[in-house]
Structure formats: structure tokens, C-alpha cells
Design goal:
Blueprint lengths: L2 H15 L3 E7 L10 E6 L3 H19 L5 E3 L6 E5 L3 E6 L1 H7 L1 H4 L4 E5 L4
Parallel strand pairs: 2-5
Antiparallel strand pairs: 1-2, 1-6, 3-4, 4-5
Length: 119
């Protein structure tokens, strides 16, 4: 398995461990000039959960792949946190912000994969 696929799996695993909802994988590999290969988007129900989701993604990616975060935008009190792993961008939103920015629609010409919510 290549490193990018392992990174995607680790991100999704980190999101699922903290009950991230409506996880969507945006595959940008077929689009020329795309800013990354994959974008993983999810939402949390509160500021605390958004923060916990980002912590879980960071911990899981580090433990499972050894990959380091290149940059992060947002903080513990943010309604959106963005995480840049180079080939993979992670967006964690409160539902209202996710609806407002509508990244899935922005990248609608890519392959979108909905990942079932954890039980």
C-alpha cells in the first residue's frame, strides 16, 4: 500500500475513533492542478468534539504512519480546523460551517466517497 493511502486510512481511523460524522473522502488524483491528492472532511457536534477529532487524527496519523503535520489552521475553540499533511488535507467542521463552505460541492468534479458514521 502506498504512503498516501495509508495516510488516508489513518485520518479516517482517527476521525472514527472520536465519532466524527459525515466523513467524506474527496479523491483529487484525477484532477490536474489539484492542491492535494485527497481531502478528508468530517464534522463534530461541538467545539470540544471538533478539537478532539483533530487531536485524534494527529495522534493516529503519527502512530500509524509516522507522518508529521505540515501545518494546522484553527484552534481548540474553532468551528473549523484544517490540517495539512501535504498529499492529504483534513477539514473538521461544525455542521453550520461545513454547510456554509460546502467543499464537497466545490470539488464536485472529483470522486466523492461517503464513509459510514461509526456506530
Amino acid at each position: 500500500m502506498n504512503q498516501t493511502k495509508e495516510l488516508v486510512e489513518a485520518v479516517v481511523k482517527g476521525m472514527q475513533e472520536k465519532k466524527g460524522r459525515k466523513i467524506t473522502m474527496v479523491d483529487l488524483t484525477q484532477l490536474s492542478g489539484a492542491i492535494c491528492e485527497y481531502m478528508i472532511i468530517c464534522e463534530g457536534n461541538s467545539l470540544t468534539q471538533v478539537s478532539s477529532l483533530s487531536d485524534s487524527v494527529w495522534d493516529t496519523v503519527r502512530a500509524d504512519t509516522g507522518k508529521r503535520l505540515l501545518s494546522m489552521d484553527g484552534n481548540r475553540h474553532s468551528s473549523w480546523i484544517g490540517m495539512d499533511y501535504g498529499s492529504v488535507l483534513v477539514h473538521i467542521f461544525l455542521p453550520e460551517q461545513r454547510s456554509f463552505y460546502d467543499l464537497e460541492h466545490l470539488w464536485a468534479d472529483s470522486n466523492l466517497t461517503e464513509i459510514p458514521d461509526p456506530q
